[in-house]
Write a structure and sequence with these properties.
This protein has one domain: MetI-like fold (Orthogonal Bundle). Helix content is 72%, strand content 0%. Helix 5 runs antiparallel to helix 6 and helix 23 packs across helix 24. The N terminus is likely disordered.
């Protein structure tokens, strides 16, 4: 619904409005040209993110005949079908969980909503292989739950978790925070006037959410859903343990078992093609995205929806999601830890690995957000072919298996890196390549909600373009910047393949400690670092959520 137009003010535009103006036309004349330095920075970041893909192309070109045979093989078609099926189910499930949960924790009087807001993000830090092991141990055949039910109820076997059902459930519960964080950050910036106009006309909170609020969240939902789809496409830990063959597990087997790098590179190129298709689909779906926030939206109070009789169902929904996504893995880890302590295990907590993980993750979070800003600004302020190509290139690394990214950077690091191989610099660079889309998607959705005329007003008062951006726009999009940094921090904490390949010698991280212990079936030794990982990741997320001050 349109609010009354104020003379001299830019009218907000969004899905559901009749205006057909493009973001380009909405920009004030002073902002329609971006500095050359910004373009050069964005192009440099995009080219750097594409280095692993260049490696795959070079490796596959070494034997073009074998590459074509692998691509056209019927088994490859089967892998493609199974991967796409898993992507669709996990993405849909993540959106259905994350969007209502984000709305409940931001816009309603849900009891303990800050607690739910923190708990809802923490599954993101649980490595997929740890989560899969925990769910198999707790809910699988002959698991903990079956043991508890066997004596009183005679249950001798629970349904299998393996296959598509188990992989979908586990990956959905571990990846929905991608959508949750992007939608939650955008909800803080949604224009309140349009919601108030809808409510003033007698519309119910549900009708207002469905017809007014939800369309304004489409860019954030699309960005989060794309991250879920790419994460599902590139994961191999959960699908391997749950016995569901996808591209990533087959590629990992080719690299590590048969040492067939040409075949693995060919499969990685197919996977990259799927990722590019997903990116194009998301780009087409968000073409109607506009600037949604008005000049005063950051200062307007937001109505808190009273849930009334829906408070109990909403609390049950929030509690059930937290129990399954976070409670089950944490309980199993504590169970393994207690068993290890009772058995006399020692050195269950590796504080050195914790320090290394926090250090690498902090470097990666800062570097990734800095690298994502020029790409996000250009995609919003200068929509066009070149900016679109730059943005698409930034998504390449996230869709590729970590082992392919690691090996690609080893190739460049040894040949052209001048001693960068197995240094902190190359490892942090790998993290930037892997997780750049996480920051780009979140920052872009925040920029779409900033009225560009505020920045032009600062420039009219004598401030430079860069100074106006940092003093006007950056404070407004700060929730999006913080959310991007936290997501990158969490993902870096649990990243395994790239860390194993590129990490400095003798620099253990929590992820490598967990993998080493689990690979040797020392589950008690894996439980300690896993719990440290969750606790270390909870700290910045708790700080971020508790800093938010809902306005009533």
């Amino acid at each position: 619904m349109n609010r009354p137009r104020v003379k001299g003010e830019q009218q907000p535009v969004g899905p559901g409005f009749s205006s057909r103006s493009s973001p380009r036309r909405l920009l004030p004349p002073g902002l329609r040209r971006e500095p050359l330095t910004l373009w050069l920075c964005a192009i440099a970041v995009a080219v750097a993110a594409a280095l692993p893909a260049i490696y795959l192309a070079v490796r596959a070109a070494d034997s073009s005949g074998t590459t074509l045979d692998v691509i056209l093989d019927p088994d490859t078609v089967g892998l493609l079908s199974r991967s796409i099926q898993l992507i669709i189910l996990v993405t849909l499930g993540s959106v259905l969980i994350a969007v209502p949960l984000a709305w409940l924790t931001v816009r309603t009087d849900l009891p303990f909503k800050r607690l739910w807001g923190v708990a809802a993000v923490l599954p993101l830090v649980i490595p997929s292989y740890v989560g899969a092991l925990a769910f198999i141990s707790a809910l699988g055949p002959k698991g903990l739950l079956q043991g508890w039910l066997e004596t009183p109820f005679g249950v001798d076997r629970l349904p299998d978790l393996y296959g598509l059902t188990g992989a979908t459930a586990v990956l959905t519960l571990l990846s929905y925070p991608y959508v949750f964080l992007t939608v939650r950050a955008s909800l803080w910036r949604v224009e309140p006037e349009m919601e108030e106009a809808s409510r003033s006309l007698g519309r119910s909170p549900w009708h207002t959410f469905r017809r007014v609020t939800l369309p304004m969240l489409y860019p954030a939902i699309g960005a989060g859903a794309l991250l879920v789809a790419l994460y599902t496409l590139s994961d191999f830990g959960a699908v391997a343990l749950l016995r569901y063959d996808t591209f990533t597990w087959t590629i990992y087997s080719e690299y590590n078992s048969s040492f067939n790098r040409v075949g693995a590179a060919a499969l990685s190129l197919v996977l990259l093609g799927v990722a590019v298709s997903l990116i194009l689909v998301e780009a087409g779906a968000r073409r109607r995205a506009r600037y949604y926030a008005g000049a005063n939206s950051a200062r307007r109070d937001r109505r808190i929806v009273r849930l009334g009789r829906w408070r109990t169902p909403a609390s049950v929904f929030s509690g059930a999601v937290t129990l399954l996504a976070l409670g089950v893995p944490v309980f199993v880890l504590l169970y393994w830890l207690v068993r290890g302590l009772n058995a006399g295990e020692s050195e269950l907590f590796d504080l050195g690995a914790l320090c290394n993980s926090v250090q690498f993750s902090t470097y990666a979070a800062v570097a990734t957000v800095i690298a994502a800003v020029p790409i996000s600004v250009l995609s919003v302020r200068r929509p066009g072919l070149l900016s679109a190509v730059i943005e698409r290139f930034s998504y390449v690394g996230f869709a590729m298996p970590g082992i392919a990214v690691g090996l690609g950077l080893v190739f460049f690091g040894i040949r052209y890196g001048f001693g960068l191989y197995q240094t902190t610099y190359l490892l942090v660079f790998a993290y930037v390549v892997l997780f750049l889309p996480v920051a780009v998607g979140t920052i872009r959705s925040s920029l779409l909600q900033v009225n560009p005329r505020m920045e032009e007003a600062a420039m009219s008062l004598g401030r430079s373009r860069i100074w106006a951006f940092f003093t006007v726009t950056v404070p407004i999009i700060r929730p999006g910047l913080a959310a991007a940094a936290v997501m990158v921090f969490l993902l870096t904490m649990k990243e395994l393949p790239a860390t194993l390949i590129l990490g400095p010698i003798e620099s253990r991280t929590l992820a490598t400690s967990i993998w080493t212990a689990a690979e040797e079936a020392f589950f008690a030794r894996a439980a300690g670092p896993s719990l440290l990982l969750i606790v270390a990741a909870a700290a910045p997320m708790t700080f971020l959520v508790l800093r938010e001050r809902p306005r009533t």
